[in-house]
Amino acid sequence: MKAVFDNENPQIVFENGILSAKILGDIDHHCAKYVRERIDSSIFEYKPSIVLLDLSSVDFMDSSGLGLILGRYNTASEMGAEFRICSPSSGVKKVLELAGIERIIKIEGDLRV
Amino acid sequence: MKKAENRMKLYLPSLSINESMARSVVAAFIAQLNPTIEEISDIKCAVSEAVTNSIVHGYRYNQGEIYIGVKYFSDRTVVIEIKDKGCGIEDVKLAMTPLFTTDKTGERSGMGFAVMQTFMDRLEVWSKKDKGVRILMEKKLK
Ligand SMILES: Nc1ncnc2c1ncn2[C@@H]1O[C@H](COP(=O)(O)OP(=O)(O)OP(=O)(O)O)[C@@H](O)[C@H]1O
Ligand SMILES: [Mg+2]
């Protein structure tokens, strides 16, 4: 099964048990609510074995992004899914490192070709 | 007291849609100093933290006014002041502890002050219960 929702933030693709959510633009408190609801409802709907948060199109993130990431990690864990992040920009990486996120969540490098 | 080379003031209602506007306006102002990408990114993040706190905690989704003042000096020091007249903080030292949050939704990490502290060279916070919050941040650009 494959589901794609176009032009939506985040772009969600479900394929081979992997739910990938590509966030577009800044992550702040203002946009976090909508992004969170879409990811959580997709996790409940597709019951993936892996949830991948693709940060390749995010230039800016503040601590609201940390809350968003940790919250989705919790949702995924409760649903028995593995949770990963990929392709943070240098600015985003700095915030992730400050919070020690890599001790809890696997961060993959740049997956862009 | 040395004189600022340039200054700006911004008053915004505490709407979450203004979070990106606030950090972008400050970034545009600071751009006059030709900062590095990392310096711009650090300052945007610190401003976003302070403004979001005023919106989320200070005014708790009621509307109020947020003041943002920025100035810079000839030695390339940028000084940013952010104020709200919201509910204030009872114990500022506790609030500034990394991971401390009064949020009950589980969607906040309690890292906002840690970001401001790490990304700026100086951070000072004044507050009293029901008296709002005043934040002063400083960063010396290369
Ligand atoms: N402007 C403010 N008015 C009232 N309380 C505040 C204000 N700013 C911060 N606080 C208090 O200080 C605490 C810590 O703030 P901090 O920004 O570090 O974390 P947070 O906002 O709770 O979480 P995060 O920023 O990681 O999303 C808040 O939970 C809140 O109780
Ligand atoms: Mg905060």
Give a topology summary.
The complex is a heterodimer of chains A (113) and B (142).
Chain A: E1 3-4, E2 11-15, E3 18-24, H1 29-46, E4 50-57, H2 63-78, E5 82-86, H3 90-98, E6 106-108
Parallel strand pairs in A: 3-4, 4-5, 5-6
Antiparallel strand pairs in A: 1-2, 2-3
Helix pairs in contact in A: 1-2
Chain B: E1 6-13, H1 18-30, H2 37-58, E2 65-72, E3 77-84, H3 92-95, H4 112-119, E4 122-127, E5 133-140
Bound molecules: adenosine-5'-triphosphate and magnesium ion.
Short characterization:
The complex is a heterodimer of chains A (113) and B (142). Chain A is an alpha/beta fold.
How are the strands of the biggest sheet of chain A laid out side by side?
1-2-3-4-5-6
Gap from first CA to last CA of chain B: 22 Å
**Strand percentage of chain A:** 25-35%
Provide the domain count of chain B. 1
- Portion in helices of chain A: 25-40%
Mean pLDDT of chain B: 96
Report strand order across the widest sheet of chain B.
1-2-3-5-4
CATH architecture of chain B: 2-Layer Sandwich
Radius of gyration of chain B: 15 Å
Unreliable spans of chain A: none
What would you call the shape of chain A? globular
User: Main interface pair?
Assistant: A-B, 23 and 26 residues
Average pLDDT metric of chain A: 92
The tally of beta strands of chain A, per DSSP, is: 6
Q: Give the overall silhouette of chain B.
A: globular
Write up what this structure looks like.
The complex is a heterodimer of chains A (113) and B (142). Chain A is an alpha/beta fold and 113 residues long. Chain A has one domain: Transcription Regulator spoIIAA. Helix content of chain A is 38%, strand content 27%. Chain A has three helices and six strands; from the N terminus they run E-E-E-H-E-H-E-H-E. In chain A, strands 1-2-3-4-5-6 form a six-stranded mixed β-sheet, covered by helices on one side. The longest helix of chain A has 18 residues. Chain B has 142 residues and is an alpha+beta fold. Chain B has a single domain, classed as Histidine kinase-like ATPase, C-terminal domain (Heat Shock Protein 90). Helices cover 33% and strands 27% of the residues of chain B. Chain B contains four helices and five strands, in the order βααββααββ. Chain B has a five-stranded antiparallel β-sheet, covered by helices on one side. In chain B, a hairpin with a 5-residue loop joins strand 4 and strand 5. Chain B is globular and about 40 Å long. The chains are: A alpha/beta (113), B alpha+beta (142). At the A-B interface, helix 1, helix 2 and helix 3 of A face helix 1, helix 2 and helix 4 of B. The structure holds adenosine-5'-triphosphate and magnesium ion.
